[in-house]
Amino acid sequence: MNVVLAVKQYINAMIRDSGPGMKVLLMDKETTSIVSMVYSQSEILQKEVYLFELLSNSSRESMKHLNAICFLRPTPENVATLSDELKSPKYSSYFVYFSNRLKDEDVKALAQSDEHESVKEIKEFYGDFIAVSQHLFSFNIPVSTQRENAEWREGVFPRVAHGLIAVLLALKKKPFIRFTASSPNTKRLAEHIDGYMTKNHSLFTFAGEIPPLLLILDRKDDPITPLLSEWTYQAMVHELLGIHNHRVDLSKAPGISRELHVHRYGTTALYL
Fold it and tell me: Is 94:119 a contact under the CB 8 Å cutoff?
C-alpha cells in the first residue's frame, strides 16, 4: 500500500491521456501541494509539461498552442472558476481531472459552460491527499477539533471523510472499520465511510482483495505518541525547524544565506 506510487500513477495517467505535445498544468493550492510532494518540477518538465499555473490566477495569458491538464479538488469555487474560463478558453483543449467525486450538478454546469467544446475529458482521479511517504499521508489540517467541546471544527469533517475515501479508492481497498467506541468523532467518521462504501458499492469492488482493517482512533486515547521522536535526522529536523510539504524553512536560523531559506529534501529518511 504505497500512497506515493498511487498519486504518481494518477499524474502519469493524466499526462498520458492528454496526448503528445506541450502542456500546461492547471491546479489549485491544494492540488499543487499534492503534485509537488511526489514529483519535482524538473521531473514534470521531462513529461512535456512546461507551464504550471493556478486556476485562480485570472491574469494568465492566452496560449492556444498548449493543451491544459486541470487537476483540481471538486470544490464549488473551483467548479465556478473553471466554468467561467471555459466560456472564454485560454488553451487549445482541456483535460479535466478532479481529485474526488464530482456532483452531477457540477458536471452539468461544466458541460453548459463549455460553449467552445474545448473539454476533451473529465475524470475523477482519487489523489485527494498529501502523500508524505510511502506509508504516510496527511490532509494538512493542523487542528481538527474545537477546544471548547472537542467536536469537529467547521469544514474539517467533510475534508477528512472525503480524503480517507480517496485514499481507499486510490489503494483499491474496501476495509473493515473499527473505531474508538467512546469517541463521538471517530464513530461519526466510521459510520460516514461505511455508509459511503455501501451506497457506492460498485466503486469498492476489487477482484481478489483481502479486506484490510481501517482503525480510527481518537488522539485523546493516546497522548504519549506526539511527545515521542524517531531516532532519525528527519525527525530531529522536523522537531527543531519544522518540515512542511517536504520543505524546511531556514529563514529564522542564524548564518543561513537567503537563497537557502527554504530547502527541499527528498522522501528518503536519514537514520542515525
Answer: yes
User: What DSSP string describes 233-248?
Assistant: HHHHHHHHT-EETTEE
Instruction: Phi first, then psi: give them for residue 154, nearest 5 degrees.
Output: -60, 130
* Long-range Cβ pairs for the range 35-39 (8 Å, 24+): 35/7, 35/11, 35/71, 36/245, 36/246, 37/4, 37/7, 37/130, 37/131, 37/132, 37/245, 37/246, 38/4, 38/7, 38/8, 38/11, 38/131, 39/8, 39/11
Express each pLDDT in 10-42 by its tens digit: 999 999 999 999 999 999 999 999 999 999 888
Q: What mean pLDDT comes out for the span 60-66?
A: 93
Q: DSSP secondary-structure letter at 212? A: -
pLDDT digits (tens, 9 = 90+) for 233-267: 878 888 888 888 888 877 777 777 766 656 565 55
Whole-prediction pTM: 0.88
